[in-house]
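User: Let's play a game. I give you a shape written as tokens, and you guess the letters that built it. Ready? Here's round one.
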């Protein structure tokens, strides 16, 4: 138990803008493996990434959500550093190629990083302290949903601040 608290304290002391390459690799692998299930079931899947008692970076098993939301129980057996979730299947009536303001607010509330995969196969990193979302990789870097229509939501920037996300989603 003490190791988990030490690891978490060390991670919280790191600069907010520093994205951990190992954490991003774990997120990418987990989200890539969940894309097809998320598309078939037409719902989001989510979980957490963090350090276990052996100081190894691991991901929790995914929890299924709804078409537009997901909530996983906060684990007590790892020192959580990030959340992860899919954005489900492609839906013409839903803006799901960028993280939402709610995604960012959820990570910020716990001072966490976040990772989001989209139906277009994008992978996003959310810096919950700086309130900025950045594309790690663009269209097709992860599995793409059947019927995905490129460009439906207009131009997608490489990076959004919280205020920019709110504006983009309200346009």
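Assistant: Ready! My guess for every position:
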């Amino acid at each position: 138990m003490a190791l988990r608290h030490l690891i978490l304290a060390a991670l919280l002391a790191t600069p907010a803008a520093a994205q951990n390459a190992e954490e991003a690799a774990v997120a990418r692998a987990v989200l890539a493996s969940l894309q097809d299930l998320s598309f078939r079931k037409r719902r989001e899947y989510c979980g957490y990434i963090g350090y276990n008692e052996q100081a190894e970076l691991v991901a929790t098993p995914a929890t299924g959500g709804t078409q537009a939301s997901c909530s996983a129980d906060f684990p007590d057996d790892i020192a959580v550093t990030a959340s992860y979730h899919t954005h489900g299947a492609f839906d013409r009536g839903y803006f799901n190629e960028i993280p939402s303001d709610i995604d960012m607010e959820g990570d910020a509330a716990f001072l966490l990083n976040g990772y989001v995969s989209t139906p277009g196969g994008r992978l996003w990193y959310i810096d919950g302290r700086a309130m900025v979302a950045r594309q790690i990789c663009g269209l097709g870097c992860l599995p793409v949903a059947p019927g995905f229509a490129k460009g439906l939501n207009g131009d997608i920037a490489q990076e959004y601040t919280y205020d920019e996300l709110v504006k983009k989603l309200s346009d």
